[in-house]
Amino acid sequence: MQGKAIIPRDRKTTLSFSTSFIPEIRLADNIHTTIGTAAKVQGAKTATLVIDGFLARSGLAGRIVESLEQEGISARVFSDFAGEPKLAHVRAATAAAIGSDTVIGVGGGSALDIAKIAACCAASGEDPMFYALAANPLPKAPLKKIMVPTTAGTGSETSATNIFAGPEGKKLWIWGAETKADLVLLDPVLTTTLPAQLTAWCGLDAFIHAFEAATNRNSHRGAQFYAHEAMRLLTASLETAVREPNDLQARADVLLGSCYAGIAIDNCGTAVAHNISHALAGLAPVHHGLATALGFEATLGWLVDADTAELEAAARACGLSRVADLPDFVSRLMDRCGIVRALPVAFEAYGAADLAAEMKAPENQPMRRSTIRPIDDADIDNFAAEIMALPKAA
Fold first, then answer.
1. What are the backbone angles phi and psi of residue 108, rounded to the nearest 5°?
2. 13, 40, 274, 332: least buried by Cβ within 10 Å?
């Protein structure tokens, strides 16, 4: 006769959560060469390719268009953008996508976000600002979407969050399952030409996505499953990917870690490091990965004082036995990846009060509220002062 398990009355036996749908994900070397056949299987007849400009000029856009045309799919290319997505870019991509039934995003997070928003706006005929900050429901029948990331950082290929700069230059977001990809192709070969600095910035962004999703107020076991694996992959392989760019196994691990981190933030969101990085971007141009890494390092010592079970689990995913070891672990990882603690020279025009005001702005409050430790205005002022005291470099 089996004994009956005795469970203490104060122990939680169930945990309620739900996870959003995860697109089909395929990973393989040179899998980008299958875009044409993949689009055909999805029923594509006309496609718009949204691709980073330098990738288009490298000949990649031409090869993708050729693969589409070989499958009988007519294709057009939109590559007239650079840097962080802006409203003008999203509007132009939307105009290019009208009349297509499929949008293919190839590039970094900017290209993917632009492609996903365009797939919704081209289907509905609405301007992107109609959907900004969830002002209105997204169209229920967007264009089909295939996402092919060439950087390993944003996780945009699996998330429902899409960032762009609005008419006043402030970061806005469009959120909803309708923006998510139908198919994700992960090709480590496409990431090998990413410079070491960008590999490091993007990889730290992915790690912080995973960490914040696994430890914030919205975190749950469904997302932690992906977040913890993302942290393991990224901490084990990011330094190798930075130092040995042609190591395809390291590149694949970092790419998959970024993808899994995207799934995690899609379900649980981010926290204070992203509040800071979005606030910085509201002042002047700065790479999102760098800004997030700087914000993370500046706040992690404060954050780990919470010493929650979620922080303990995150520490174990990093191979640590104590939560208190996390700040030093992250700083050493940043050192090994060559992260320079400096802001672009454009930030010389701003002070701590300017950054604090951005951190308190309405669009950045969700990340403030989700942080596991309550953040008061004095905390924000302290964080802002530490960030803005960093050197400014060209």
1. -80, -170
2. 13
pLDDT tens for 268-293 read: 999 999 999 999 999 999 999 999 99
Q: Model pTM? A: 0.92
Q: Are residues 105 and 51 in the same domain?
A: yes
Q: What is the pLDDT of residue 20?
A: 85
Question: What are the pLDDT digits (tens) for 225-240?
Answer: 999 999 999 999 999 9
Residues 183 and 55 in one domain: yes
- CA 177/CA 15 separation, integer angstroms: 23
Residue 385 Cα distances to 138, 143, 280, 327, 380, angstroms: 39, 45, 12, 19, 8
What is the rounded distance in angstroms from the CA atom of residue 352 to the CA atom of residue 358? 10
Sign of CA dihedral 91, 139, 271, 24: negative
- Domain hosting 244: range is 196-393
Q: Last residue of a domain, which of 190, 205, 227?
A: 190
CATH number at residue 80: 3.40.50.1970
Residue pointed to by tokens 């993949």: 38
Number of domains in the chain: 2
Q: How far apart are CA 7 and CA 255, in angstroms?
A: 41
